[in-house]
Amino acid sequence: MPEKRADSTLEIRDLNVSFIQGEKEANALRGISLSLKRSEVHSLVGESGSGKTVTSTCVMGLLPTPPARINTGEIILGDQDLLLLGEKDRREIRGKDIAMVFQEPARYLNPTLKVGDQITEMLILHLGMEKSKAVDRALEILELVGLKGGKRVLDSYPHELSGGMKQRIMIAIAISCNPSFLIADEPTTALDVTLQLQILNLMLSLKNTLDMGILFISHDLRVVHDISDWISVIYAGRIVESASRETLFADPKHPYTKLLFESIPDADKRGKRLQTIPGKVPDAENIPGGCAFHPRCPIAEEICRTSQPETKDLAINNRAESHTAACHFIGKQWKN
Amino acid sequence: MEFFLFILRRFLRLLLTIFIISTIIFFVIRVIPGDPALVVAGIDALDEDIQAIRVRLGTDVPVSVQYGRWLADIVRFDFGESMISGASVNKLIMERFPLTLALAILGIVLGIVVAIPLGVLSAVHRWSFWDYFGMVYSQMGMAIPSFWLGMILLLVFAVKIPLFPLFGSDSLKNLILPAIALGFARAAVILRLTRAAMVEELSREYIITARAKGLTDRMIRYKHALRNAMIAVVTVTGIQFGYMLGGAIIVEQVFSLPGLGRLFLYAIYQRDFPLIQGGVVFIAVIFSLVNFAVDILYSLLNPKIRIS
Amino acid sequence: MEKLIELKNINKVFKSHKLISVKKDDYVAVDNVSLDIKKNTVFGLVGESGCGKTTLARSVMFLDPPTSGEILFDGKDIAYLSGKELKLYRSRMQIVFQDPNSALNPKMSIYRCMKEGLVNRRYPKDKIDTRIEELLDLVGISSSYVNRYPHEFSGGQKQRIVIARALSMEPEFLVLDEPVSNLDVSIQAQIINLLLDLKDKFSLTYLFISHDLNLVSYLSDEVAVMYKGQVVEIAETEEIMKDPLHPYTLKLFSSAPGKNSVELFEADESYREGLPDGYTYFPPESDSFLELIDTGEGHRIGCYALNG
Questions:
Q1: C257 to chain A: which residues are within 8 Å by CB?
Q2: Residue range A286-303, pLDDT digits in tens
Q3: What is the interface pTM, i.e. ipTM, of the complex?
Q4: If you measure CA to CA, which chain C residue comes closest to A47?
Q5: Same structural domain, C57 and C105
Q6: CATH classification number, B97-307, choose in 1.10.760.10, 1.10.3720.10, 3.40.50.11740, 3.40.50.300
Q7: How many whole angstroms separate alpha carbon C92 and alpha carbon C172?
């Protein structure tokens, strides 16, 4: 095992990213702050177009600029701001300190390279291993991700493996250099439920054995419920609520979060109509002024149209952990 | 085992193609108006002479019998004798084939050497000098006819600046100019395809993975993207090579090279039916063999094909 | 309750098309499936990808007729219908797919896309425009949008338009193949509510195909679980949720997210929950025949008879 580094936190502070297309400017991220700890799963939940993927690509340093432009913000790993680094330093961090797992392993693996090569090239590049040592290490990693068959698996091409095996290979690639943080962008969305559970369990166990932090990006509240220590809800490029898993599910504060929970179908709601959120997620080009959620919000008032709510920490009643939400009327009830 | 079966399947397909092509050739030639025997004998020939020629050509029996004989000949790869020179068609073809093959190989090598690196450069540095250069080149390559290019090359590099010989076919030097004339347009096709394939591969998701792994741009381009792009490039290059083998007629004419193209051209002038038939079948077989080879190569490059 | 759809022993086999092959490559996608769908109910079909649920749906719709078996629509076997009658029956059943993009022609305005179907079924010309407005209104799309093109709508809106178009045929039966899987959570709920409203309003019957157990258990009256082309368990939703019996159903249910990490259920040969004597869940021989055995009140499980 390579030696552990001291980077125990990954902090995203006030990240503002827009996409410039001709005259138009789309505000994809409007002040995202997230704080990740090692050995913790921090989930970023939101609907499509809310800025989840822009956040992860930005943390990886894979955002094409232009068209993207990082207006403000810091991404701090350990004690250095990644946004201040040059492309070469940035590249050395990618895969080595922060690695990523994607949604569709079948498309995110190179179809014409043996999976063994796809694992070992990282070890050779980042850790300077010899080819034969890298192969030995790759075999260990396969064991870690629960793939039996050793050499045979290394010698196969992606299409020769099942969907679940391919995702295990993606994870093997990501953890090969023992990164401090893993970004998982909808890693189980393309998988069947039985495989999904296996992959989620695998990620949780790897998190513990390798002592890494996971930024888990998902639209699926149920999956997020199962895997997270901490959850941040993103809407139109802003974090609207952030709390520990237990707190968020027991006591959601932001109307968007509440409505999301109520709109999930399950057997208990049989015979009743589901709660819906009217309208749709706004485009990044046309984000409503004030609170971006106000046109869809059941409790919106005049102030919501004009002023953007501050993010408040609700950690009152001597509760130690923070629970933040950005709403003018936290806790206000409404009738359906 | 799977791979062997795959090859066997492709080989059977090859045989089937050759069978279909030869059948088509047989009937097309029968459909063309005019009795070959009349052509050979001339307008003022005697009936007995014509009948004798028919017997020699084998056109005196019903078409079904002729077709049976034709197939039997194909299986033995025997196309009879040239009506004009009396030499065996096989011998005539085999005398000329090495030169055409050499010309095509040289042409395709020149094409590959120019087109693939330029295509890759164009795709990697889009809208750069190399990309525009590649675009202009491929436009020109497609627009300029090979006979014109051949003549210009002769004029410049054999007449004005005598770097290369004007005539002859006995040394490699004789083949350089014709190979350029032949390969120029083919290279344009390969270049465009290489660029398109590379651009396409660079936009695929596995490239994002490669970047997320922190690989260098070089590794991403040449180890990851190019390998996948080559699958399409190889196929098209193979087909281009096939064209060159069959389509060197004009270039051989311009450079007075005694290759297959000229042989067949004269056969057509002189209505030398056995030679025409043999020639067309030969080209078809060569083309099918090239395709067969491309299929095999393709499957080696693309691991997915080997299984399914 | 009256049955609208009866499937009897439906099989769908995809034949291998290889020239030569060592092993038999025929693929049995749907294996002897029988089930009944009652009028004005929602029948949920769950299973993982590749289990044959979409193939079964396509067979029911006769988009891809089954290899064998009977499909009774309102008591009539549609396999024996003539072309004209079949067309009539086809319009009584409609299908909505997961991806609205592939169901809508991007070059056709919403108006033209809706009109096409109405013209096809000879709807009185002068009433077409008002009908289109009515239909769009039903699914919550403003009729001022009729001249827009599909790309101007969001995914949820497109799915609404697809539903409106299906309704224009005045169907009694809708196959809904993962209709909300591509949509966001908040949009999913809107579409599901819409589907439930429409069902009540027009007494529709749904075959709802999904991999999302929570969704199926929310809206179905009956549920069938498919595994490797076979139905392994059928019961009323409340019954199957309360008391799932088949090991595969248990595995599927236990892996559904939202329960805070449950161990994956893996049954072994000794697992016999709910089985009558003389039966087993695991095929005793490779060619054993799966039977659906009623364990009471319509709760049926797929199992194998021991000793023939």
A1: 193, 196-197, 200, 220, 222-223, 225-226
A2: 889 899 999 999 988 889
A3: 0.87
A4: C184
A5: yes
A6: 1.10.3720.10
A7: 5
